[in-house]
Amino acid sequence: MQRIYFTILRAFFFLTWIGIAVAQPLEEEDLARAYGDKATVSIATGSRGDLRRAPAVATVITAEEIKAMGATDLDEVVETVPGVHVSHIPAFYTPTYGFRGIYSNPANSQVLLLQNGISVNSIYRSDKGQSWGGLPLENIARIEIIRGPGSALYGADAFAGVINIITKTAADTPGTEFGVRGGSFNTRNAWVQHGGKLGEVNVAAYLRVGSTNGSKEIISADAATRLDKLFGTHASLAPGAVSTGHDDVDASLDLGYGKWRLRAGYKLRNMELGAGMTSALDPVGKEKSERITTDVSWNDPQFARNWGLGFIGSYLQYSEDATNYNMYPPGARFPTGIFPNGMIGSPGRWERQARVSGYATYSGFANHSLRLGLGHEDLDLYKVRTRKNFLLNTAGIPVPTGAVIDYSSIQPHLLPHRRTNDYYYAQDEWNFARDWMLTAGLRRDSFSDFGATTNPRLALVWDASLDLTAKLLYGQAFRAPSVLEQYGVNPVANGNPNLKPERIRTQEAALSWQPLKETQVNLSLFHYTMKDTIRAVPNAVAGTGSTYANSGKQNGHGAELELVWDVSRTLRLTGNIAWQRSKDEATDTDVGYVPHQHVYARADLHFAGNWLLSPQINWVADRKRAFGDARPELSDYTSVDMTLRTERDKGRWGFAVSIRNLFNAVILEPTLAPGTAIPNDLPQPGRSFYLQATRSY
Amino acid sequence: MAIQTANSWRAAAWRGVTAVLRGVAVCWRTALRCVVGLTLVAAAAALPPTRGIAIIYPEVGEPYRSVFASIIEGIEEQIGSHVPSIAIGANPIPKEIAGELRRQNIRVVIALGRNGLKLAVGLERDIGVVAGGVLSIPEAEARNISVLSLAPAPGLLFARLQIFMPAAKRIFVVYDPKQNAWLMRLAKEAANARGLELVSYEASDLKSALRIYQDLFATADPRRDALWLPQDSSTVDEVSVLPLVLHEAWAHNLAFFSSSVAHVRRGALFSLYPNNVEIGHRLANLALGQMASNGQAGRGVMPLKELLLAVNVRTASHLGINLSDRQNFDLVFPEQ
């Protein structure tokens, strides 16, 4: 193996040398002098971005960088961000994004996912949805990822981090592009996107269909294995393959007319169950999730002298509709009886979210830049369906009831719930002295169910020299209790309508340094304290299950170091190292699951004939077990990916070949403590290959 | 009762808003189909080409390809119809292109980029040429054609400087006369018209330019002086001159602005950079003017007035400049 690494290293340096030796075409010289380098020209010719000095530790990943890293899904981009690790949970193999040691499973509720600044989180679990099924990247102009709290601007769930996905506008996609991609696991995708004008209207449209069988990794033992051992049955399908296939449709439309913009999005997923809804292998169950989004906005940054104004109205319709989860396989036995046809459930949930908000900016006070905003949210999980062939007894143990029937009125898995929120916020950027800026923000949210919360944000920025900027940041944030945690009906973890939001306080220090030309080094240090963490706590009466309560406390600290080095016009090196320690205060132990060390590095190497080679390496290390989990620690892993890309015929044709997990590293993501359901953790895909072709007109 | 009425009005208004948004959400798939359909129909039924005008542009990769695409979009928008365009590679065959232009009865060619211009100047003299997407050409060649340079008009740069720095009185500039003599003539006039003094230094290579910059920083008064970096490959480079200017300007609190937007990213106070669609409009008007005057319309190199504004707010803060009209900026650096 070492020899292979050395060979690759030698090849890499050879290609680097070739890359440096390649000259820029003459034709581009004038353009480079007028518009700048390729990175600048991409900004200058694309849609106008909300580029500002974020009072936060943030990473912006552009479409160019996404192409270079060969990423085809949001997960692959998020994994490259310092301090963030993408893990997976058994149900649907859904990704969960752990920010700076803050990890949650099964819901990923401490991370706010925005699309064009609007939340796409479901209120069922306060996350991006259990049958998420990935997010393709062809239609994404850039991704902004904030590590740390964002509730002072974004409200609920901007707790450990915020991911804002900015889709392409007509300016970002001139002309029409057709694309196809296929590869391992029978993965197939085709898409078309168009940017242009229809009269006075700027139009960007995108449509993509895709499907994959998913990797068939083998689980050696599952939750049914444990029952088999208890009752001497042979129901478990383990050892057996996980089911991670899905069929996808994605579409979006973006219409711009003067100061008005109308955007609409559609996302459909038909998902297989991963390692099963209850950590028992399920090759039968399916779930369809459908997300429809729309928003109408009007913005006038120069409404009057010193004033800017804008408003936005948005609507989201989201559903998760299951068909026959085989929660336990046929023949599974419980103390309450046997399920000859399997323990089957077909739950469904439907929710709609409407939002209106407005803002004003004012720059009339010397050295101040003010932003004021208010809004209203109506979040309604209005319909729940519970079809199943069992009832749960008071201890949460399923009792077989025969045929699958609708128990929605007898024992639903959840009660419908509607919540509204009125909020207002203010933020001021105060340039109080030369090279010193203080940003102070405050937002108050008043929820109809769990009450009001106020969250401040302070950022002191010092431009110490041309090359060095230092930031000190403080912020508070909250995570709203999900509807599942408030109104879930399951004795194993019953809902509690009296829950308060989870809270976090974070202090950060950040340095941004440009020690050499075209070299950027960023260092951030953080410390956070979480309280009122929502956990399922055993009820006072033994044998009656648990109920969600604000019972946890956690704190953590760490550091992240990033480097971007444009070695030459043809070679860019990007890398980061993250280190963190997080402690569960209740048990005085490591929180587990998330890596203590995480290293990522990539080289983007342009060489003769318009080729781009991008090898990348990802090292995930030192993942402890959580309290109560006696299993040995998870092994570290190093994965290497390689993407080779070229454009022919002056960019009309584009081709890319990617190899992911080139050396077939064994990658395991942790299952929940104590690890009795799936004891050997969740295996991730081995080596896989993808080919992509695009044609632009 | 009053509260109840207010509440019911509020509820009714909210129901109305949500109903509208919901309606849009539910109907959008149909709308998507219609819009995509209409777009395809519009593209298929391409408008009849305007007789007499054609575009020649170079084939380049992204992101510069988008620059030319936007300029062409602007040309067609202004003319109001499809304009035939010929993409040329690194080694075009002039005879073939000339033959194609003759076949289409082309009277004016809009030449984009260096290669487009190189080819167009070799065409028969009865075909008028309007050029864009280049920085400059030798003045002898420009006598016969209209060239819209990518160099921002000095007057507009100076006007923006005066907004940021009302106390500015002198502007220093170092330039190579072979590249920018034409621009400096215009710059001197523009400075005079605005009550500014343009102090220009000629330099033919980086070494002499560096020496001038070092002397200049020693004598400049940051309260009333500013420095302008033109697009000049003889006197500005990324390795020696730009780093020196960036560090010295920061250390001396001297405002410096640039004709290259990339320098704003590095720390220049501001720059004006091309508005590609508007460039297309201007080129179209120049071409139509040539058509109307049978090729007798204005000739020579013109600076660019179709511009957008990029500002470095970090540098502005360092210089103590209060950016009250921040919302008017088209690009703001640094990005984070």
Topology of helices and strands:
The complex is a heterodimer of chains A (697) and B (336).
Chain A (H helix, E strand, L loop, with lengths): L1 H20 L5 H9 L2 H8 L11 E6 H7 L4 H5 L5 E5 L6 E5 L11 E5 L2 E2 L20 E8 L3 H4 L6 E7 L7 E9 L3 E12 L2 E12 L5 E2 L3 H9 L8 E2 L4 E12 L2 E13 L13 E19 L2 E17 L1 E4 L3 E3 L2 E3 L3 E20 L5 E25 L5 E9 L10 E17 L2 E12 L3 E15 L2 E12 L3 H5 L14 E12 L5 E20 L7 E23 L2 E14 L4 E2 L4 E13 L3 E13 L13 E12 L4 E8 L7 E2 L12 E2 L4 E9 L1
Chain B lengths: L1 H43 L8 E6 L5 H16 L5 E4 L5 H10 L4 E5 H9 L6 E7 L4 H4 L3 E7 L1 H11 L5 E6 L1 H17 L3 E6 L3 H14 L5 E5 L11 H11 L3 E4 L2 H6 L3 E5 L1 H17 L7 E5 L2 E6 H6 L12 E3 L3
Parallel strand pairs in B: 1-2, 1-3, 3-4, 4-5, 5-11, 6-7, 6-8, 8-9, 12-13
Antiparallel strand pairs in B: 10-12
Helix pairs in contact in B: 2-11, 8-9
Describe this structure in words.
The complex is a heterodimer of chains A (697) and B (336). Chain A has a single domain, classed as TonB-dependent receptor, beta-barrel domain (Maltoporin, Chain A), CATH 2.40.170.20. Chain A has a 22-stranded antiparallel barrel. A five-stranded mixed beta sheet of chain A has the order 1-6-7-4-5. In chain A, strands 2-3 form a two-stranded antiparallel sheet. Chain A has 697 residues and is mainly β. Chain A starts with a helix and ends with a strand. Chain A contains eight helices and 38 strands. About 3% of the residues of chain B have low confidence. Chain B is flat, with a radius of gyration of 25 Å. In chain B, the strands form three sheets. Chain B has a six-stranded parallel beta sheet. Chain B has a four-stranded parallel beta sheet with strand order 7-6-8-9, with helices on both faces. Classes of the chains: A mainly beta (697), B alpha/beta (336). Chains A and B meet through helix 2, helix 3, strand 9, strand 10 and strand 13 of A and helix 1, helix 2, helix 4, helix 9 and helix 10 of B.
